[in-house]
Design brief:
The chain has four helices and no strands. By secondary structure, it is mostly helical. The protein has two domains: 67 residues; 86 residues, no CATH class. The relative contact order is 0.07. It holds the Pfam family Phage_lysis.
Amino acid sequence: MVRTLTATVALLLVLLLVAIAAALLYRGNALDAQARDARAQQRVTTLQSQLESERNARDTEHTQAREMAQIGDQHEDDREASASIPAAVVADLRAGNLQLRDDLATCHTARLSQAVSGAVERDASAQLRPEVAGTALQIVTEAEDHVRSCQRVIGVLTGQRLPVETNP
Protein backbone atom coordinates (compact mmCIF):
# COMPACT_ATOMS: atom_id res chain seq x y z
CA MET A 1 0.00 0.00 0.00
CA VAL A 2 2.87 2.33 0.67
CA ARG A 3 4.16 1.42 -2.73
CA THR A 4 0.88 2.24 -4.33
CA LEU A 5 0.69 5.44 -2.43
CA THR A 6 4.25 6.36 -3.43
CA ALA A 7 3.51 5.50 -7.05
CA THR A 8 0.32 7.57 -6.95
CA VAL A 9 2.13 10.54 -5.41
CA ALA A 10 4.94 10.20 -7.98
CA LEU A 11 2.38 10.02 -10.77
CA LEU A 12 0.60 13.10 -9.42
CA LEU A 13 3.92 14.96 -9.21
CA VAL A 14 4.75 14.01 -12.80
CA LEU A 15 1.29 15.13 -13.93
CA LEU A 16 1.71 18.37 -12.00
CA LEU A 17 5.09 19.00 -13.64
CA VAL A 18 3.63 18.23 -17.08
CA ALA A 19 0.72 20.62 -16.40
CA ILE A 20 3.12 23.35 -15.27
CA ALA A 21 5.30 22.81 -18.36
CA ALA A 22 2.22 22.89 -20.61
CA ALA A 23 0.99 26.10 -18.94
CA LEU A 24 4.40 27.75 -19.38
CA LEU A 25 4.59 26.62 -23.00
CA TYR A 26 1.07 27.90 -23.69
CA ARG A 27 1.86 31.21 -21.98
CA GLY A 28 5.02 31.60 -24.08
CA ASN A 29 3.10 30.91 -27.28
CA ALA A 30 0.41 33.38 -26.24
CA LEU A 31 3.02 36.07 -25.54
CA ASP A 32 4.68 35.39 -28.90
CA ALA A 33 1.32 35.65 -30.63
CA GLN A 34 0.60 38.95 -28.88
CA ALA A 35 4.00 40.30 -29.91
CA ARG A 36 3.39 39.22 -33.52
CA ASP A 37 -0.03 40.87 -33.43
CA ALA A 38 1.47 44.08 -32.04
CA ARG A 39 4.16 44.11 -34.76
CA ALA A 40 1.58 43.40 -37.45
CA GLN A 41 -0.66 46.18 -36.13
CA GLN A 42 2.30 48.57 -36.06
CA ARG A 43 3.16 47.66 -39.67
CA VAL A 44 -0.45 48.19 -40.71
CA THR A 45 -0.47 51.61 -39.03
CA THR A 46 2.82 52.56 -40.69
CA LEU A 47 1.60 51.43 -44.10
CA GLN A 48 -1.67 53.30 -43.67
CA SER A 49 0.16 56.52 -42.78
CA GLN A 50 2.50 56.05 -45.77
CA LEU A 51 -0.49 55.45 -48.02
CA GLU A 52 -2.21 58.56 -46.69
CA SER A 53 0.96 60.62 -47.21
CA GLU A 54 1.26 59.31 -50.75
CA ARG A 55 -2.37 60.13 -51.48
CA ASN A 56 -1.93 63.65 -50.10
CA ALA A 57 1.21 64.13 -52.19
CA ARG A 58 -0.58 62.85 -55.27
CA ASP A 59 -3.56 65.15 -54.63
CA THR A 60 -1.20 68.10 -54.20
CA GLU A 61 0.60 67.12 -57.40
CA HIS A 62 -2.68 66.89 -59.33
CA THR A 63 -3.82 70.25 -57.96
CA GLN A 64 -0.54 71.87 -58.94
CA ALA A 65 -0.72 70.29 -62.39
CA ARG A 66 -4.24 71.67 -62.92
CA GLU A 67 -3.16 75.12 -61.76
CA MET A 68 -0.06 74.99 -64.00
CA ALA A 69 -2.24 74.01 -66.96
CA GLN A 70 -4.55 76.95 -66.23
CA ILE A 71 -1.56 79.28 -66.03
CA GLY A 72 -0.24 77.92 -69.32
CA ASP A 73 -3.61 78.33 -71.01
CA GLN A 74 -3.95 81.88 -69.70
CA HIS A 75 -0.42 82.71 -70.86
CA GLU A 76 -1.14 81.38 -74.36
CA ASP A 77 -4.38 83.37 -74.48
CA ASP A 78 -2.49 86.50 -73.43
CA ARG A 79 0.15 85.89 -76.10
CA GLU A 80 -2.50 85.44 -78.79
CA ALA A 81 -4.27 88.60 -77.63
CA SER A 82 -1.03 90.60 -77.66
CA ALA A 83 -0.47 89.76 -81.34
CA SER A 84 -3.24 92.18 -82.31
CA ILE A 85 -1.81 95.07 -80.30
CA PRO A 86 0.68 96.43 -82.88
CA ALA A 87 -1.90 96.69 -85.65
CA ALA A 88 -4.41 98.39 -83.35
CA VAL A 89 -1.81 100.84 -82.03
CA VAL A 90 -0.57 101.68 -85.53
CA ALA A 91 -4.15 102.24 -86.72
CA ASP A 92 -4.93 104.45 -83.70
CA LEU A 93 -1.73 106.46 -84.18
CA ARG A 94 -2.46 107.02 -87.86
CA ALA A 95 -6.09 107.92 -87.15
CA GLY A 96 -4.98 110.39 -84.50
CA ASN A 97 -6.70 108.59 -81.64
CA LEU A 98 -3.32 108.09 -79.97
CA GLN A 99 -0.29 110.33 -79.94
CA LEU A 100 3.29 109.53 -79.09
CA ARG A 101 4.86 111.55 -76.32
CA ASP A 102 7.47 113.99 -77.58
CA ASP A 103 10.33 112.03 -76.08
CA LEU A 104 9.09 108.84 -77.78
CA ALA A 105 8.31 110.54 -81.07
CA THR A 106 11.82 111.97 -81.39
CA CYS A 107 13.80 109.14 -79.82
CA HIS A 108 15.87 107.39 -82.48
CA THR A 109 19.30 106.46 -81.19
CA ALA A 110 20.35 105.18 -84.61
CA ARG A 111 19.80 108.67 -86.05
CA LEU A 112 21.78 111.17 -84.03
CA SER A 113 21.10 114.05 -86.32
CA GLN A 114 17.67 114.40 -87.94
CA ALA A 115 18.75 117.74 -89.37
CA VAL A 116 21.10 116.03 -91.80
CA SER A 117 18.47 113.59 -93.08
CA GLY A 118 16.74 114.17 -96.37
CA ALA A 119 13.02 114.71 -96.81
CA VAL A 120 12.52 111.12 -97.94
CA GLU A 121 14.17 109.76 -94.81
CA ARG A 122 12.04 112.01 -92.62
CA ASP A 123 8.88 110.74 -94.28
CA ALA A 124 10.02 107.14 -93.81
CA SER A 125 10.86 107.93 -90.20
CA ALA A 126 7.41 109.39 -89.64
CA GLN A 127 5.85 106.23 -91.11
CA LEU A 128 8.08 104.05 -88.97
CA ARG A 129 7.22 105.68 -85.63
CA PRO A 130 3.70 104.18 -85.25
CA GLU A 131 4.94 100.75 -86.30
CA VAL A 132 7.83 100.89 -83.85
CA ALA A 133 5.47 102.04 -81.11
CA GLY A 134 3.08 99.17 -81.85
CA THR A 135 5.88 96.61 -81.85
CA ALA A 136 7.38 98.06 -78.68
CA LEU A 137 4.01 97.91 -76.96
CA GLN A 138 3.57 94.29 -78.03
CA ILE A 139 7.01 93.40 -76.65
CA VAL A 140 6.24 95.11 -73.35
CA THR A 141 2.85 93.41 -73.10
CA GLU A 142 4.33 89.98 -73.83
CA ALA A 143 7.07 90.58 -71.26
CA GLU A 144 4.52 91.60 -68.63
CA ASP A 145 2.40 88.52 -69.40
CA HIS A 146 5.46 86.31 -69.17
CA VAL A 147 6.54 87.78 -65.83
CA ARG A 148 3.00 87.49 -64.47
CA SER A 149 2.84 83.82 -65.54
CA CYS A 150 6.22 83.12 -63.95
CA GLN A 151 5.06 84.71 -60.71
CA ARG A 152 1.93 82.56 -60.72
CA VAL A 153 3.99 79.40 -61.34
CA ILE A 154 6.28 80.29 -58.44
CA GLY A 155 3.21 80.89 -56.29
CA VAL A 156 1.81 77.46 -57.16
CA LEU A 157 5.11 75.72 -56.48
CA THR A 158 5.69 77.47 -53.15
CA GLY A 159 2.08 77.29 -52.06
CA GLN A 160 1.74 81.07 -51.87
CA ARG A 161 -1.12 82.77 -53.60
CA LEU A 162 0.00 85.99 -55.22
CA PRO A 163 -2.59 88.70 -55.85
CA VAL A 164 -3.92 88.54 -59.38
CA GLU A 165 -3.41 91.78 -61.27
CA THR A 166 -5.80 92.95 -63.90
CA ASN A 167 -4.60 94.61 -67.06
CA PRO A 168 -5.17 98.38 -66.98
